[in-house]
Design brief:
This is beta-glucosidase. The protein has helices at residues 3-24, 32-45, 59-62, 75-80, 98-112, 123-126, 136-151, 167-173, 181-196, 209-217, 229-253, 275-298, 303-308, 317-323, 380-394, 416-420, 423-441, 485-493; strands at 52-56, 116-120, 155-161, 202-207, 258-264, 267-270, 330-333, 337-342, 347-348, 351-352, 355-358, 369-370, 377-378, 399-404, 447-453, 472-475, 480-483. It is an alpha/beta fold. An eight-stranded parallel beta barrel has the order 1-2-3-4-5-7-14-15, surrounded by five helices. A three-stranded mixed sheet has the order 6-8-11. Strands 9-10 form a two-stranded antiparallel ribbon. The protein binds ligand GBH.
Length: 508
């Protein structure tokens, strides 16, 4: 990174410390109360988790600056512009303005004691039209961010693709529906590895292909807004090929690095004690997680999927060989659980699956407490079962949970001081971390890391800014940030060094 950027960063740190100093002298510091709360809860939790802590983000949800320094349009830019697609007509155009405020946010993480940061690279910043001419300004931006993280003593974990496909590739050949994406993704990956591979050893290729294949291509409730199950399963197959091709580049360009693919899965709890419901729940896991993890770890799609999806593309022996060994650790995103019941003939998001899902049991009782997001119920017990399922089926060397978190019920409507006392989120973090701790200590699951989603309140896709997942509150009108109790709770729980626990973000 250039000298001026380093100086800028140091200046920023100094400004931050000064701001904290002022705050300590008693100028209406936000967050004193939350620290007290979190310390009490740390005592209750009593044990330091046997895995590391990080905070996670994604480029399209935080950066804003969508037309700055040569970034090209993405399929989400297009999708957001269609009325009705995003709650309140929100867009990602500004988001958290991380593109301009990253030094403040990195300084704040350092002062809070966060040692790992998960972020993604925006493909349309690197290749504005998907391939062809590289945009050096895009690479320079990420070099500055990564350099600043290292200066701050924070290890970056970098994802190549978090759903922001260059629109040009959707227009040219239908994006992830076509295998033309495979060499183009590999070229993008190679460009990033070459330019930025020295900054960190922790990488993933693609975030949550289940979500963008089945919601984006299969249902149309995300970009690119297509409603076609054939395209969705083509997407699965093309993601697997693109992942394998990118990892081939990685082995050559980032020797000693570790790479994976972020797969998301809800825990499927059988609705009743009937064996057919147990089978159905297992099938749901195979459809959602097995559709990606089985080809990688076992060389083929699950039999339950092959039997039901008539138009399923094939995993050739060559692809199976390329996928074999293509992940160095299992990267799991996990939030919630659902009840699953057997039902012959049932169609789901993924097509013919012979099961149905509900959020209530046979007596109408919710599976867990409601979060702000409709789909998210608090089910820490499901997290432990989920980790065991992954461990038993795939026996990975290592599991890193690359996302876990919640939107707190009622938070968006709360006045800010109240929103900072996010007790439901503190309890969520406490209970999910405790469940994972049991999975490691009692069940011997090799989980090594836990990333809380998310550092900041951000652009929550179809929900716009109406759902807040941040550990840090963002006032979107002023771009001011304020720690929530949950941020302090987590860093204390993990015994991170809190350089200045009373630190609040500096004002611009
Ligand atoms: C993650 O997805 C994403 O990686 C992240 O970008 C996101 O901000 C975070 O979760 C919080 O949502 O509305 O009924 O159609 C988590 C998996 C899959 C959960 C899609 C929400 C939509 C359910 N997501 N699902 S519904």
């Amino acid at each position: 990174m250039e000298g001026s950027a380093v100086l800028g960063f140091l200046f920023c740190l100094v400004t931050g410390i000064q701001a904290a100093g002022t705050a300590q002298q008693g100028t209406g510091l936000v967050g004193d109360g939350s620290l007290t709360l979190s310390l009490l809860q740390v005592e209750a939790a009593q044990t330091t988790p046997p895995f590391y802590l990080g905070f996670a983000t994604a480029a399209p949800q935080i950066e804003g600056a969508n037309a700055t320094d040569g970034r090209g349009p993405s399929i989400w830019d297009t999708y957001e512009a269609i009325p009705g697609n995003i709650d309140n007509g929100d867009t990602s155009a500004v988001a958290d303005d991380f593109y301009h405020l990253y030094l403040n946010d990195i300084a704040a993480m350092r002062l809070l004691g966060v040692k790992r940061f998960r972020m993604s690279i925006a493909w349309p910043r690197i290749f504005p039209s998907g391939d062809g001419q590289v945009n050096q300004q895009g690479l320079d931006f990420y070099a500055r961010v990564l350099e600043a993280l290292l200066v701050a003593g924070i290890e970056p974990h970098v994802t190549l693709y978090h759903w922001d496909l260059p629109q040009a590739l959707q227009d040219r050949f239908g994006g992830w529906n076509s295998d033309q994406i495979v060499p183009i993704f590999a070229q993008y990956a190679a460009t990033v590895f070459q330019a930025l591979g020295d900054y960190t050893t922790h990488w993933t290729t693609v975030n949550e292909p289940w979500t963008f294949c089945f919601l984006g291509y299969g249902q149309g409730s995300g970009a690119p807004g297509i409603n076609d199950k054939v395209q969705a399963w083509n997407c699965v197959h093309n993601v697997l090929q693109a992942h394998a091709a990118a990892v081939k580049q990685f082995r050559a360009l980032v020797p000693g690095g570790k790479i994976s693919i972020n797969l998301n899965c809800d825990w499927a709890q059988p609705l009743t004690g009937a064996p057919s419901d147990a089978d159905a729940a297992q099938r749901k896991m195979e459809f959602m997680l097995g559709a990606f993890a089985d080809p990688i770890f076992k060389g083929d799609f699950p039999a339950s999927v092959k039997q039901r999806i008539s138009f399923l593309p094939q995993i050739t022996p060559q692809l199976a060989a390329d996928l074999n060994g293509s992940v160095d650790y299992f990267a799991l995103n996990h939030y919630t659980s659902t009840f699953v019941a057997n039902q012959q003939g049932a169609m789901g998001l993924q097509g013919a699956c012979d099961y149905t899902e509900t959020q209530v049991d046979v007596n109408g009782k919710l599976i867990g407490d409601q979060a702000e997001s409709d789909w998210l119920k608090v089910t820490p017990w499901g997290f432990r079962l989920m980790l065991n399922w992954v461990n038993n089926r795939y026996q990975p060397n290592e599991i890193v949970v690359t996302e876990n978190g919640m939107s707190m019920k009622g938070e968006s409507a709360m006045p800010m001081p109240q929103a900072l006392q996010d007790t439901q989120r503190v309890n969520f973090c406490r209970d999910y971390v405790a469940a994972a701790t049991d999975a490691v200590n009692l069940d011997k699951v090799p989980m090594t890391g836990y990333f809380a989603w998310s550092l900041l309140d951000n652009f929550e896709w179809g929900n716009g800014y109406s759902k807040r997942f941040g550990l840090v509150h963002v006032d979107f009108k002023t771009q001011q940030r304020y720690y929530k109790a949950s941020a302090k709770f987590l860093v204390n729980l993990f015994n991170c060094t809190v350089l200045d626990p009373t630190y609040t973000y500096p004002s611009d």
